[in-house]
Design a protein that fits this description.
Elements (H helix, E strand, L loop, with lengths): L4 H17 L15 H11 L15 H9 L13 H13 L5 H7 L6 H29 L1 H5 L5 H27 L10 H4 L4
Helix pairs in contact: 1-6, 4-6
């Protein structure tokens, strides 16, 4: 694969600056009035403007996608076609998690029927962790892409290695997420010893 290393380096630096300053909205920053679908879509596109368009150039967040989430029971249904702060919190978490976690796992992470205070607690924890992981990701990219970022003699092969590194980290992260979700409710007592014991 052929890459313009200068372009990639510039994009990485720009993305780093963006991520350093990016924050999901705090609970109290979410609208405290009921919203119609077009307002919800507009706000979500602003809150999650880092999400890429799909391969056909369609926006990452649309009314159709939100309706599917309601239909699949990933989030509570609107009340008289209006969406509340709880809906917005679910949508922010679901839309950002969907980049790396399959829907059945999201449903386990974010069950329906929770009281508003519990949704608020989960959301505030998610927002804090999201920012923390943004900063950790910046460090990871700096390490994996050091050649591309700082070595003027970098080649396409250095960018290719960065792409592979990113894909491998993504795969391991997805695997860990799914394994941890599968362990919900499990104890040491009901696990086969062969899966617990570390082989020497």
């Amino acid at each position: 694969m052929a890459y313009d290393v200068n372009l990639i380096g510039a994009k990485l630096r720009r993305w780093e600056n963006y991520l350093k300053n990016f924050h999901l909205p705090q609970w109290d920053e979410l609208p405290d009035m009921d919203l119609y679908m077009d307002q919800v879509v507009m706000l979500l596109q602003r809150y999650l403007n880092f999400l890429p368009e799909d391969e056909h150039g369609n926006a990452a967040i649309t009314a159709s996608i939100i309706n599917n989430y309601v239909r699949l029971k990933i989030m509570p249904p609107p009340v008289k076609k209006k969406y509340t702060r709880v809906h917005m919190a679910y949508l922010i978490m679901v839309c950002s998690l969907k980049q790396s976690v399959n829907i059945p796992y999201i449903q386990k992470l974010l069950p329906l029927g929770l009281p508003e205070e519990e949704v608020r607690r989960i959301y505030e924890s998610y927002v804090a962790k999201h920012h923390e992981m943004c900063l950790a990701f910046i460090q990871l990219v700096r390490t994996a892409g050091d050649d591309v970022l700082h070595d003027p003699s970098s080649q396409s092969a250095d960018v290719e290695r960065l792409v592979f590194s990113s894909a491998i980290v993504s795969g391991f992260s997805k695997l860990l997420t799914e394994k941890m979700i599968h362990l919900e409710g499990e104890t040491m007592d009901n696990q086969p010893e062969s899966e617990i014991k570390i082989k020497e």
